Records
---
Amino acid sequence: MTPRRYIQFLFVATLIVANGALQCRTPRRSFQESRTCVYTHSRLDTSISSSLANHEHDTEGNVQVFLRFSPLIGGPPIPLHVEVILAEDAGKHKDNIESKEEGSTIYIRKTNNLASMAFLNTYRQLHRLDFLPQNPTDPSTVIRLASFQSVTGKLRHRTYSKNITAPSDAKQDGRGITVLLPVGSIATEKKNGVTSSNVISTALEFTNSRRDNVYDDLRIILGKNCLSFAVDLLLELNNVYGIKRVGSWNKVDFGE
């Protein structure tokens, strides 16, 4: 199978899984019901994340949802890893992602530098959440994963405020082709008590609550991995707030 065919197969399979998950008929919880849950876990890796305490703004926009595919750390230069990106709009971007050019565009880059997708800097804040091995470059990790054994995993949260060129991330990501896929948007309305801060907090609480049990080990198949985490997180956000999904992707943007 050629690299091009492999990538096409990977994306089709992922889109089928993600679309099926968001079509799930699980009853949607109200925002107030979701806030009654109490989470006590605090082992989420947020070493390069900013605090969300008192994270309120004068203006509110929607939260845009993306899936980003990138190479595994220390792995081949093909996009095998997936993460969820939540982008907080400034108040001036009240329109839905479907009405914006990037809403119908799949972005493909030859580099793993997030700054190559310049339009992301138009968002007030970006949050990246993913699940990866605790020691991804350790030879024993590669051997265990290649033999379909489990390894210790960690959940990671990274955030940026109009600065997606943070040099500290360059060594934490693999090198090679990356793809950014718009999923949809979550509407925020202060009058209903739903803000972008609420959406981000829900994502972090969901992640933290599963660190010590559900997502303690990572396994390529027959276990939890980066794709299952992304789908689980999208399901949670969809159940609590509802994700208005992108209707179609009718453009591919290739770049360096």
---
Amino acid sequence: MIDPLKIVAMSLLGKLFASFSFAGHITSLPFIASKMIQISLESGWSRLSPAAFAHWSNYLALVENNFEDGYRYAKLALSLRRASTSCIYDGAVIFCTTNTKIFVEPIQSTIEFYLEGHKAAMRNGATRYANLCAMVYDMSSFWAGKNVKAVCCAMVETMKQVKFYNNLLLLTIILPAFQVAVKLAGDTGIEQSDLINASGESSKERNFAAKLPSHILNTSFHGFYEAFMFRQLERAKQYAETFYEEQSESTINMSSPMFMREL
């Protein structure tokens, strides 16, 4: 692809897709992803072409529940990534394709690709996708049966990184999972000062989080799990009702791990 206007259009569409999917506004996602693929087919491949197919695979699997076709496009995106001479969007491609593969391949081995995506994103300065990969890896590790104390330690490091880059939205997503993990682990061996520095919220962050559907969904899901584990069934029922009231087909957060969408 040599047309500068097409290259700029691909870049803007990629950012638009990421913003809309992260916020949970999915009605425009198929049009954005298909337009990126159309531009690539008509004007030639660009550095963002693998990401276009990765975005489309995410939409098929995470929104349409079409795992077979989504998995096929994920493998195509990874093949294009390996053939590409540029690695600037590797973090985005690995993150999106892993979100799809986790529905098809064994979760214990598949989530390791998030670590690869984190390294690739950090190399290219894509801190948003680096934080996303680290966050989803830690949360998925908890549900994949990894050692809870080790998961707590990893979450502390991830939250430090997220706070360093001032990504308040990601912090609100990982905090409920971290709080449940700490309660289940008991003595985590983590210094109290590290816990406060990593997970402490300011009033600004709390006010910001209270308005986010993704925060309400995460809090409800992990509150449900914690209440169910400790046999507080009435409380668990209330959390489940809140979750279903907030969740709808138009507010799916495509960055949330698969377990939350399966409640």
